[in-house]
């Protein structure tokens, strides 16, 4: 089964170029101007979409909420997770402006809404897809709310079990929305390579054979998402920053513009390298084949009428004559002409 889905006018899935999402997330640091720069940069580096996170801190996190190690590094002595996220909000009226700017630049803009209000706002903006963050994998009522908008949904599966993924899929499908993409994800920032578990991509493909499967990356560098694509991930989401030295919890673990350019180029090369799966020589190989393969050639000069023995012939380049696999059919045949050493035999030379 060929698994495909449409994001706007773009077909995404098997047999298509890898869809690269530049996850700007909260790397705008609450600055609309910086968010605009991220949009322009995402387009310039070749991303297929730019994505943000849409939230009001007071509606999804308690003031006493626990933090995470990568966030703790940014908090300082007296800061709280709540305080940090409060600084990273964008106001609701920023999104129409950013969406219009993205259209002007020429790149689709999407976002992860963290509550129903932002679902409605993004729906009005006609985003190409909704992204359900890993934190909401078990938030089934919210998944149903998003799914009822009948837009494609990208669901990240970090911190989740296969059973939880199945529940989320069923919740979305229960609304009649079957346009789903599942992203394997490890919600550590960054994860140790031993925790990435890329083979889970294939597990998701097997468990949900009718769904598009991709990978949301939090590793440093571009090699892991490339490996994910090689394993069949057709959507790659990568955190994106203008400068890793900027303040913010996600900046250091994000790809900068040069890394994203490299990732885009390698993903495109990889898509071409995956090929059709049919084992056959390419047009270029046919030329190489003539030069590199062997033929049955004369090991010594022999006269017309001579019955060939195994000692009379050798197997040498080029491969323009009789294939070595037919050498046993050559032995015992008589020559129709005098031949010199290293003469490349053809069937016409033999009686």
Order of helices and strands: EEEHEHHHEHEHEHEHHEHEHHEEH
Largest sheet: 8 strands, parallel
The low-confidence runs, each spanning 5 or more residues with pLDDT under 50, are none
Rg calc: 29 Å
* Overall mean confidence score, pLDDT: 95
Annotated CATH topology of the largest domain: TIM Barrel
> In whole angstroms, how far apart are the ends?
53 Å
What assembly state would you assign to the polypeptide chains in this entry? single chain
Looking at the overall shape, the CATH architecture of the largest domain is Alpha-Beta Barrel
- Strand numbers in spatial order across the main sheet: 5-4-3-10-9-8-7-6
Q: What is the count of distinct domains?
A: 2
Report on the architecture of this protein.
By secondary structure, this protein is an alpha/beta fold. The protein folds into two domains: 7-274, TIM Barrel (Alpha-Beta Barrel); 283-349, Antifreeze-like/N-acetylneuraminic acid synthase C-terminal domain (Type Iii Antifreeze Protein Isoform Hplc 12, Alpha-Beta Complex). It is 34% helix and 17% strand. The chain contains 13 helices and twelve strands. It has helices at residues 32-44, 69-75, 81-87, 94-105, 116-124, 140-147, 162-173, 193-196, 200-207, 223-230, 257-274, 283-292, 327-330; strands at residues 4-7, 10-13, 19-25, 49-54, 109-113, 130-132, 153-156, 180-185, 212-217, 235-239, 295-298, 313-316. The strands form three sheets. Strands 5-4-3-10-9-8-7-6 form an eight-stranded parallel beta sheet. The chain has a two-stranded antiparallel sheet with strand order 1-2. Strand 6, helix 6 and strand 7 (153-156) form a beta-alpha-beta unit. The longest helix is centred in the last third of the chain and has 18 residues, at 257-274. The protein is elongated and about 100 Å long. The chain starts with a strand and ends in a 21-residue tail after the last helix. The model has no long low-confidence stretch (mean pLDDT 95).
């Amino acid at each position: 089964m060929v698994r495909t889905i449409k994001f706007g006018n773009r077909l995404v899935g098997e047999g298509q170029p890898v869809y690269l999402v530049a996850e700007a997330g909260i790397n705008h640091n609450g600055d609309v101007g910086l968010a605009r720069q991220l949009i322009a940069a995402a387009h310039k580096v070749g991303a297929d979409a730019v994505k943000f996170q849409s939230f009001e801190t007071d509606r999804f996190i308690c003031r006493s909420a626990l933090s995470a190690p990568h966030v703790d590094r940014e908090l300082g002595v007296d800061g709280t997770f709540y305080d940090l996220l409060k600084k990273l909000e964008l106001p609701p009226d920023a999104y129409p402006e950013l969406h219009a700017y993205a259209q002007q630049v020429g790149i689709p803009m999407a976002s992860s809404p963290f509550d129903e209000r932002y679902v409605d706002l993004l729906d009005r903006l006609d985003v190409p897809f909704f992204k359900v963050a890993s934190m909401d994998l078990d938030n089934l009522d919210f998944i149903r709310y998003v799914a009822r908008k009948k837009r494609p949904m990208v669901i990240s599966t970090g911190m989740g079990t296969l059973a939880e993924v199945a529940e989320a899929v069923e919740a979305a499908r229960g609304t009649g929305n079957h346009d789903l993409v599942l992203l394997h994800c490890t919600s550590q920032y960054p994860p140790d390579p031993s925790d990435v578990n890329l083979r889970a991509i294939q597990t998701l493909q097997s468990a949900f054979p009718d769904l598009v499967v991709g990978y949301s990356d939090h590793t440093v560098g571009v090699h892991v998402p490339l490996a994910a694509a090689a394993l069949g991930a057709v959507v790659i989401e990568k955190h994106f920053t203008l400068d890793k030295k900027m303040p913010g919890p996600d900046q250091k673990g994000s790809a900068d513009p040069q890394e994203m350019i490299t990732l885009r180029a390698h993903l495109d090369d990889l898509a071409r390298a995956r090929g059709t799966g049919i084992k056959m020589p390419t047009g270029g190989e046919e030329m190489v084949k003539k030069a590199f393969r062997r033929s049955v050639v004369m090991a010594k000069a022999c006269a017309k009428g001579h019955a060939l023995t195994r000692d009379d012939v050798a197997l040498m380049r080029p491969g323009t004559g009789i294939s070595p696999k037919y050498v046993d059919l050559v032995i015992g045949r008589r020559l129709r002409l005098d031949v010199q050493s290293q003469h490349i035999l053809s069937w016409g030379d033999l009686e």
